[in-house]
Specification:
The complex is a heterodimer of chains A (about 80) and B (about 425).
Chain A (H helix, E strand, L loop, with lengths): L3 E6 L2 E6 L4 H7 L6 E2 L5 E2 L12 E4 L2 E5 L10 E3 L3
Parallel strand pairs in A: 1-7
Antiparallel strand pairs in A: 1-2, 3-4, 5-6, 5-7
Chain B lengths: L2 E10 L3 H11 L5 E4 L20 H10 L3 E4 L2 E8 L2 E6 L3 E11 L3 E3 L12 E2 L1 H8 L9 E7 L2 H11 L3 E7 L3 H11 L3 H13 L5 E3 L1 E7 L6 E6 L2 E6 L2 E6 L1 E3 L2 H5 L4 E2 L2 E2 L12 E3 L9 H15 L3 H5 L2 H17 L15 E3 L4 E2 H4 L5 H8 L11 H9 L15 H5 L11
Parallel strand pairs in B: 1-2, 1-6, 2-3, 6-19, 8-15, 9-10, 9-15, 10-11
Antiparallel strand pairs in B: 4-5, 5-6, 7-16, 12-13, 13-14, 17-18, 20-21
The chains are: A mainly beta (about 80), B alpha/beta (about 425).
Chain lengths: ~80, ~425
């Protein structure tokens, strides 16, 4: 059995392998878009290395966290699409 | 109040150059640290590498593990708090890092060029998708088009294929003629030749099209297909991801913030990798894109020099010279062709943070004017994505660095050891 971490994405419970980043977890959960741009376009990760800020999400209520540089933690609450 | 730590040598960036620098410094001086914004060391090239114990990365990790180097991961240096002090932010708070000598090993990022549809979800950097695949994203059964330019395309394609993806094709904008000249140079560098031959084996059966580039990414809510162009021919390929990057851009922002001279997008260094600012060295990609071997050599030179052992550094000069010559050949081989300037249309976004299309930039005559009137480059990435594209598309000189060098939380700006905010000028 792989070592899994349980967390929520927009309230839905997901389990992902420990060591995954939040960006990978959101894509694994089936959503390609993480946020809307200033003009309302859907956006997903671009650079994967903390440069472009396209993957920013809210984590446990804290806004604008780069999901590609943060590892998933047990009980983490992720909010995407805002 | 934030914590302050003090080091003889502080290394910013934990990729190959930073690891090599820290090892060489720590073998001569006691208090050495690496600060890196990612959760673990390795930079992009050694990120989560499933390495056999004989691999180059494993040998460096083992050397590092034997030394008392403090690793400060998940922490991003964003400003100066005063002479010889950086301020850094982590998820938990802010800290001050005081140093006697500083080594900047801040690496490189991918160059992105705009084309219609490039902002669609699932259009990513080639290194970007590879990074996600190494961070838990499964690739099994996914169809991927790899496009852009540079040796990274092959490395990314090989890794994604090993992870179970189907690589539909690799579109390299450079011409076959340029690549043949470059491959002749490979023969003189046996380790690079070995790498190239290994990649070729791993990519057996995958079409590699030179003089070919993406004309458009298509899809409704996410990528569905890529329109490719080669000569007079255009055609469409269905895929799940487009992994697209146009070689690399040195990360010079922190160096520029500290006042180090930067010329033609590269941090200026002397023979000992010292920048124009006393006590600040720089190694690896920020001094010019040169790849893994050159980063390791420059890192070692910087580490020896910062620890006061210049003679050990001098022994590596000849090796560095050969690798720099190779890097110059790589720059020529993968130079961007002018036709790529006509890829974006007037309504194609160039600045993805502020959603500024090319047509609005063309109303202005300089980066500064465009910034003031369109907000291009004023969003969270601070121009890291759009500025290299704007330089190529419009020929503008980009001056973009200001503190904090990354967006940070308000409390990080207001908290320091002394209670005073970090110097922001």
């Amino acid at each position: 059995m792989p070592d899994l971490v349980q967390m929520t994405i927009n309230g839905v419970v997901v389990r992902v392998p420990r060591g995954s980043t939040v960006a990978a977890a959101v894509l694994l959960a089936g959503s390609s878009n993480l946020r809307r741009s200033v003009s309302g376009e859907l956006r997903g990760p671009l650079c994967g290395m903390g440069i472009c800020f396209e993957c920013r999400v809210a984590i446990d209520g804290r806004q604008h966290v780069r999901s590609c540089q943060l590892l998933c933690r047990e009980g983490m609450e992720v909010t995407i699409g805002v | 109040m934030s914590e302050r730590s003090e080091f003889d040598v502080l290394v910013v960036g934990g990729g190959p150059a930073g690891i090599a620098a820290a090892c060489c410094a720590a073998e001569a001086t006691p208090r050495v640290a690496i600060v890196d914004d990612n959760p673990a060391l390795g930079g992009q090239i050694w990120r989560d590498e499933p390495a056999p114990s004989t691999s180059q990365s494993a040998i460096w990790y083992q050397r590092l593990a034997r030394l008392p180097v403090q690793i400060i991961a998940g922490t991003r240096a964003f400003a100066q708090a005063g002479p010889h002090i950086l301020v850094a932010e982590s998820e938990d708070g802010v800290c001050e890092l005081a140093f006697r000598k500083l080594i900047l090993a801040t690496g490189a990022r991918e160059r992105f060029l705009p084309f219609p549809g490039w902002t669609l979800p699932n259009v990513m950097g080639a290194g970007g998708l590879q990074a996600l695949a190494r961070s838990g994203l499964t690739m099994r059964g996914k169809k991927i088009v790899v496009a852009g330019t540079g040796p990274l395309l092959l490395a990314a394609a090989a890794h994604l294929r090993q992870s179970g993806a189907e690589i539909c094709l690799i579109a390299e904008q450079a011409s076959r003629r340029h690549l043949i000249v470059f491959s002749v140079r490979l023969v003189c560098h046996s380790s690079k030749l070995q790498d190239a031959l290994a990649l070729r084996r791993e990519l057996a059966g995958v079409p590699y099209l030179t003089s070919c580039w993406p004309a458009a990414a298509q899809g409704k809510e996410k990528l569905e297909s890529v329109m490719l162009r080669r000569g007079a021919k255009t055609w469409s390929v269905d895929c799940d991801y487009l992994a697209c990057g146009f070689h690399l851009v040195p990360n010079t922002e922190l160096a520029a913030l500290l006042g180090c001279g930067v010329e033609q997008g590269r941090v200026r260094v002397d023979d000992l990798q010292q920048t124009t600012v006393p006590d600040v060295h720089c190694a690896g990609e920020p001094t010019g894109i040169g790849g893994l071997e050159l980063s390791l050599v420059e890192g070692q030179i910087a580490g020896h020099a910062a620890a006061g052992a210049p003679d050990a550094a001098r022994g590596l000069f000849a090796k560095r010279k050969g690798l720099r010559r190779f890097a110059a050949g790589m720059d020529r081989a993968f130079a961007l062709r002018p036709q790529l300037r006509s890829l974006p249309q007037a309504d194609t976004l160039v600045c993805r943070c502020e959603d500024v299309p090319l047509g609005r930039l063309r109303e202005h005559s300089s980066w500064r004017a465009a910034k003031l009137l369109t907000r291009c480059g004023m969003g969270p990435c601070q121009g890291r994505v759009c500025a290299p594209a704007v330089e190529f598309l419009l020929g503008w000189n980009v001056e973009s660095v200001r503190p904090p060098v990354f967006p940070v939380r308000v409390e990080s700006l207001t908290t320091t050891v002394t209670g005073a905010p970090p110097t922001l000028s």
